[in-house]
Specification:
The complex is a heterodimer of chains A (489) and B (226). Chain A is mainly α and 489 residues long. Chain A is built from 20 helices and two strands. A two-stranded antiparallel sheet of chain A has the order 1-2. The chains are: A mainly alpha (489), B mainly alpha (226).
């Protein structure tokens, strides 16, 4: 019962903030109430993984499911929501848009709400609707700055993602149709019902439906080649929104793919579904590497890095097994923390130098010694270098792939990760130690503590997670691997 | 399974309605006037509503009558009205720069239908349903999907892209009425409602595009590359 109360609290908090912002338009009130809501959500999400055992629990007429996987994703989301809420206090003040600020916080809380409840949906159809709602809410956050670029990004975002996700709806309907041959014309389409019925379903239709769902939700996850909305939306939205899009939203859509993958596993369809996921993952890494090396925009660099990391996560789930799934889930948490840090830093530098161009940002370490050091540490972490968490998780995923059928993907991954490391570090070298020109000096040299504290808060756990992978976390994650793929060692 | 035990009359009625909807998406594909898209879309929604009611009658699913009424209200009246209001605000009433002539569009659409038929036949054969209306339902569902994507790809006016998206949804909705008439009511209701929110969001966005970018042609949206 304890878990039910926590779930209720963690979803009511952003809802209350949303309503509060709509009724009270005072900017300082809105940022405070959103921050409190984020803190409450985080405080409620944190204990759930400790409380839950291996079995899924259902609430509210079976419409809500909480299992270890959902608890993990909700934890990642609430961490990003909390960090981004702290950061947005400082960042949004720099934008000087006080009279529209209540809309931002209302939408922000609404976005957090939809992202938090998405993974908790037990009905496959309702999960689709939750994902669709996240798009609709976040579109207006992407468009918040009201300039031509952000409008363009918002339009592409809603168009590409809505079209893509309609494929997921088609796939969902085909799953349901397939189930009617086993369960009769009317049944509740929940994850567990589909898994139970899967062995008796028709394999051809099951594969067709899975591929449609994979492409559909893959659009939302940003897997290449369905990623085209992602760099635009991530780079043109305000920095806290970029962090939420990257660190929270992508995971929420990924968990849907993983659950559908579990259904196809239950049906014993062979390697094809996983192979397709691995192929998408490897291609995302390839696209990410290509565009990271030649990138000119600082936030677009981070956006392509998100594509890369979602590729890594997809590879982990595709390789499967205890190592692959645990590595991918661990990577989700690390990526959420690290990408928040990177977007916060990028937002700070963007505001400080008044430009989004990498080439026009120089001498970061001279003007911002502490901030710069933090951001550089984050950049080292995001490229998967030790001693940070991403090194451990990427290494685990690679180990998972070292079996004959997937070893090619591991080699591709290793080469591309090195390319990305070089490309990423080259951009940071030019920003930190490149030639300084007088006109490239920052227009703003003081950044408020609100902008620096969340960076500390995300770097510290990242370092801890890199040096020490707690045994409890390992058992927790491997138990998810077993529940997602029954019968697979 | 409804499609296995249909009377010939019901079966031909379903086929007729499905084919009329497919035909109306070709009308949308072959036209360049925004108003025509809208009329064709509204007519398509009414056809789908009629189909829902017919499935409800022959398959004895009384809740489908409710779906039919809501389809008429939402997809047949409210959505076209909302889109009509957006069109009225715009200065454009037709596609100006076409990548693809409407005639070539029709040919590609026909190829899509053939592809969809091949896929549907293959899938239906798995269940021994080759001789039922299920093949047609699947074909129309998949080909409306493909035609919708084609419209998204070759049309540039913001509003025709929105309509392309709605054709995608109509295709799914049509197919689901015949294939899975017993789908839980809640999901269908929420999807209908969801569509309304989507169009409302698009309305707001088109307004933004107009004020902040100064155009509603997506051909002009090319600042963000690389």
């Amino acid at each position: 019962m304890m878990i039910g109360t926590l779930l209720l609290a963690l979803s009511i908090a952003p809802l209350a903030a949303l309503i509060g912002c709509l009724f009270v338009h005072r900017p300082r009130f809105c940022e405070t109430i959103n921050l409190i809501a984020a803190a409450v959500s985080f405080a409620c999400a944190l204990p759930i993984p400790f409380l839950i055992d291996g079995h899924a629990i259902l609430y509210w007429g079976d419409y809500v499911i909480i299992d270890r996987a959902a608890a993990w994703v909700v934890l990642c989301t609430s961490i990003v929501y909390f960090l981004a809420s702290i950061y947005s206090v400082g960042y949004m003040r720099m934008l000087a848009e006080d009279e529209r600020l209540y809309r931002f916080y209302a939408l922000f809380a609404g976005f957090a709400l939809t992202t938090l409840v998405g993974p908790l949906m037990n009905s496959v159809g309702i999960y689709w609707i939750a994902i669709e709602l996240t798009t609709l809410v976040s579109t207006f956050l992407v468009a918040f700055e009201r300039v031509a670029e952000s409008m363009e990004a918002a339009w592409k975002y809603i168009m590409v993602v809505s079209a893509g996700i309609s494929l997921a709806l088609l796939g969902t309907i085909l799953f349901y149709w397939n189930g009617t041959f086993v369960l009769g014309p009317t049944y509740q389409m929940t994850w567990s019902v589909l898994s139970t019925a899967a062995p008796k379903m028709n394999p051809v239709l099951l594969i067709l439906a899975f591929l449609l769902v994979l492409v559909g939700y893959g659009t939302k996850v940003g897997l290449a080649p369905m990623h085209s909305w992602l760099p635009d939306a991530h780079s043109e939205s305000p920095a806290p929104v970029s962090a939420m899009l990257s660190g929270a939203l992508l995971n929420t859509a990924m968990i849907g793919i993983v659950r559908f993958l579990g259904i196809t596993r239950a049906a014993n369809l062979g390697d094809l579904p996983q192979l397709v996921l691995v192929a998408f993952g490897a291609f995302s890494l390839f696209i990410g590497a290509l565009f990271i090396v030649r990138q000119q925009g600082i936030k677009r660099l981070m956006a392509y890095s998100s594509i890369e990391h979602m590729g890594v996560v997809a590879l982990g789930f595709g390789f499967g097994g205890a190592l692959g799934v645990a590595g991918a889930l661990y990577h989700m948490l690390n990526h959420s923390l690290n990408k928040s840090l990177m977007f916060f830093g990028a937002g700070n530098m963007m505001r400080a130098y008044g430009t989004k161009e990498i080439l026009e940002i120089t001498g970061v370490n001279r003007f911002f010694p502490t901030q710069g050091a933090l951001w550089l540490a984050g950049a080292i972490a995001i490229t998967g270098a030790p001693p940070f968490g991403l090194f451990l998780s990427e290494f685990t995923i690679m180990r998972a792939g070292l079996k004959p059928s997937y070893s090619w993907a591991v080699y591709v991954m290793a080469v591309l990760l090195i390319v990305i490391f070089v490309g990423f570090m080259n951009h940071f070298r030019s920003m930190y130690y490149g030639e300084t020109t007088p006109e490239a000096a920052p227009v703003r040299t003081r950044l408020s503590a609100w902008c620096a504290v969340p960076m500390w808060l995300s770097l510290a756990p990242l370092l801890v997670l890199g040096l020490w992978w707690p045994a409890g976390v390992w058992t927790y994650l491997t138990s998810i691997a077993q529940s997602l793929s029954p019968g697979v060692p | 399974m409804l499609v296995q035990h249909l009377s010939p009359l019901a079966s031909s009625l379903f086929s007729l309605l499905a084919i009329v909807s497919l035909f109306l998406s070709f009308v949308m594909l072959g036209s360049r006037w925004l108003k025509n898209y809208l009329y064709a879309f509204a007519a398509e929604s009414w056809t789908i509503a009629a189909l829902s009611a017919a499935v409800g009658y022959y398959g004895s699913y009384p809740e489908l009558y409710l779906i039919a009424i809501l389809t008429v209200l939402f997809r047949g009246v409210l959505l076209p009205y909302l889109i009509w209001r957006i069109i009225r605000r715009l200065e454009v009433d037709r596609e100006i720069h076409e990548i693809l002539q409407p005639s070539s569009g029709l040919v590609i659409g026909a190829l899509f239908v053939m592809f969809a038929l091949a896929v549907s036949y293959r899938v239906a054969a798995e269940f021994h349903l080759e001789l039922t209306v299920a093949v047609l339902a699947l074909t129309v569902m998949l080909s409306m999907k493909l035609i919708g994507f084609l419209m998204l790809a070759v049309r540039h006016e913001a509003i025709s892209q929105v309509l392309g998206l709605l054709v995608l949804e109509n295709g799914i909705f049509l197919g689901s009425q015949i294939l899975v008439p017993g789908m839980p009511l809640l999901i269908e209701l929420v999807i209908l409602f969801d569509l309304l929110i989507i169009v409302a969001c698009f309305g707001v966005l088109v307004g933004y595009l107009l004020t902040h970018v100064g155009t509603t042609s997506t051909l002009d949206l090319k600042r963000l590359v690389g």
